[in-house]
Amino acid sequence: MKVGVSIPQHGAHAHEGHRVAEFAIEMEKAGAHSLWVGDRLLAATNPKVGYAGADTIPAEFNSVLDPFLLLGIAGAATERVRLGTNVLIAPLYRPALLARSLTTVDVASRGRLVAGFGIGWSPEEYEAAGVPFTKRGIRLDETLDALEAIWTTDPAGYSGTLVSVPEHRVELKPVQRPHPPIHLAGFTPATLQRIGRRADGWLPVVPVPSAPEWDSRLVALRDVIDRAAEEAGRDPGAIETIVRVNVKAGTPVERIAETIERNSAATGFDDYFVDFMYATDSVDGAMAAATRLFDLLR
After folding, report:
1. What's the confidence (pLDDT) of residue 240?
2. What are the pLDDT digits (tens) for 172-216?
3. Cα 90 to Cα 22: distance, rounded to the nearest angstrom
4. Cα dihedral 245, 246, 250, 251 in deg (nearest 10)
């Protein structure tokens, strides 16, 4: 089983940003398979839409570090671990800028990037980026089209209804060919269909604690992806699943290990990463918890 961990990025962890390189080094030594970042632009004080179905936004989102810089630091400090984004809110970024940043990470890390994308949920983040909140799905599809053009052709350009990139020279390509694997997060029917049609992977979530019913739900959702892939003439087996494990505060590490083992046995998934954002209040705490988890799952 492959198990990774989120890089300290939010809340109390963000205030120890000077320790990101240390964290990455120690996690690779401890056996982490991957390191991950998320993407929060801002946490609105009076949000129109709360987080995960709530009316509010977690206090941990009030402090956040930049995902691209963190990946650069972690990539420079390590040699083996995969470096993933779960997730970048792709429609917030101009494709040319997004492609340049992600190509830099993949080149600098010698081909270890997993590019995970989503459409986000915060209207205020879109407002701050100067991007309309409507038609996010269409904007995501066009952004992915533009990225693929930039990553696979030279000269490259793209013209869509919402997104465009002037034709330009692109001699520097990512190390991974034809491009870094593109993973998408989400549970909606439109997202699952999109993953089956065009993505290299799916990024679902399992909370800890959670009931076994959560595992069967993920199996059913993965079946939707597989059927969509087959309808598009693609091999479902070529689409990865990497599960994000969100840990509630106060959860023992043993419970996290039990949940991962239960979920893997029920679903057949074998690639996970754990976010200790809510479960620990320091980088030392996150490193200790992750190290203990890796030992339990060996």
Report:
1. 98
2. 999 999 999 999 999 999 999 999 999 999 999 999 999 999 999
3. 29
4. -20
